[in-house]
Amino acid sequence: MTTKLFTNARCFTPVDPGHPLAGREQGNIRTIAECAILTQNGIIREIGPGGEVLEKTRGLDIDMEIDCGGGCLIPGFVDPHTHLCFHGLREAEFAMRLEGVPYLEILRQGGGILSSVRRVRTASEEELFSSTMKLAQSALAHGTTTIEIKSGYGLDSESELKMLRVIDQVGKKSFLDVVPTFMGAHAVAEEDRHQPEAFVEKVIREMLPAVADQGIARYCDVFCEEGVFSISQSRRILEAAKALGLGIKIHADEVHDLGGAALAAAVAATSAEHLLAASGEGLKAMAEAGTLAVLLPATAYSLGKPFARGREMITLGVPVSLATDCNPGSCFCESMPFVFGLAVMGMHFSPAEALVATTLNAAYAIGMAGSRGSLEPGKKADFLILDGETPAILAYHAGVSPVKAVYKGSERVL
Question: What are the pLDDT digits (tens) for 132-167?
Fold first, then answer.
């Protein structure tokens, strides 16, 4: 057994009450001015004021003692919504959007998701792994220690299963904990564009059973949006996924208020994601159901749109988390510090609310809160040391990452 003692830290962490933090609890964090953390085999055994923890180490053989230099220590970031698995960028479409071409029009012209689909289908598994691993390592360098990665650029069984294998390998060959999500219903495949109902049936009857048999994906997500998948189509796909034992998520009300937020509540989805156009009624339904909101301010920034109404969601009692949405089209960003800063400066979150949203609530959004998202006994020793005195440095020092060190299971990995 390897025992380590971390001392001389200024610790800021949510405290996990057994459920996501919402409403007035959204900013509940514990601050320990002179903190020490005792870990054994990468798991936190004691955390608290230095003197108290040191008392509990008497008689223990400490293999290593690490002085944190008085730095700000927070849980490792959890990024609960990414499309990291892709091959090739779409800078030309970014320029089109800057010129005012709407995303759904780009999609109708065969761009958007469909251009990434063509590239993923033709890429070898090795090429896809290489490009995905590169982004995963960049996310780690910016402080992400646990990450969700969606498929969804295959849109046929063979390519979706290939993506999920790649995502699985990234989790096995990097320091990141990776949660794979199947998103075969990301768009209607080009070959089925004139028969979307047939494609929905293909997702339900062919792709989902194959994904379940493969045993890699933990969740199923669907793009519930005008021009993509309707409320009824999304419900059928999610209910079929749930029947196969997958958790369910929804890309909801990103462009239009289609009713995706209310659907997420009605089908007991773990989370509804995007929510830029969600109605007040849909948000209230989410609050009543305890459905997590996963907000993506870097996507709104990239698209030049107003941010999701995060403050309203907090007031309504919706538990809010934050994610990068890293993808080749609408948001090419793997930096959680950037997302944290946007939430504080653009969505008017307090630094404490943003910390909860990027750690504990984000862990709940991907079913990892039992072992991630906060620093307390029994959880994995995943934490960051920042170049600052408080988590506010993440918004205050704009345009850079103040992450000085990344510890994964008490091992320094950056």
Answer: 999 999 999 999 999 999 999 999 999 999 999 999
Tokens representing residue 386 in the block: 């920042």
Share of the chain above pLDDT 70, in %: 99
Q: Note the pLDDT tens digit of each residue in 76-118.
A: 999 999 999 999 999 888 888 888 888 678 867 767 888 999 9
The residues spanned by each domain of the chain are: 3-75+373-412, 77-365
Domain 3-75+373-412 bears CATH identifier 2.30.40.10: yes
0.85 exceeded by the pTM?
A: yes
Specify the CATH number of the domain 77-365: 3.20.20.140
* 403-408/177-185 β-pairing: unpaired
Structure tokens at 342: 């946007």
Three-state SS string over 100-162 comes to CCCHHHHHHCCCCHHHHHHHHHHCCHHHHHHHHHHHHHHHHHCCEEEEEEECCCCCCHHHHHH
Q: In terms of DSSP bridges, do strands 247-252 and 271-274 run parallel, antiparallel, or are they unpaired?
A: parallel
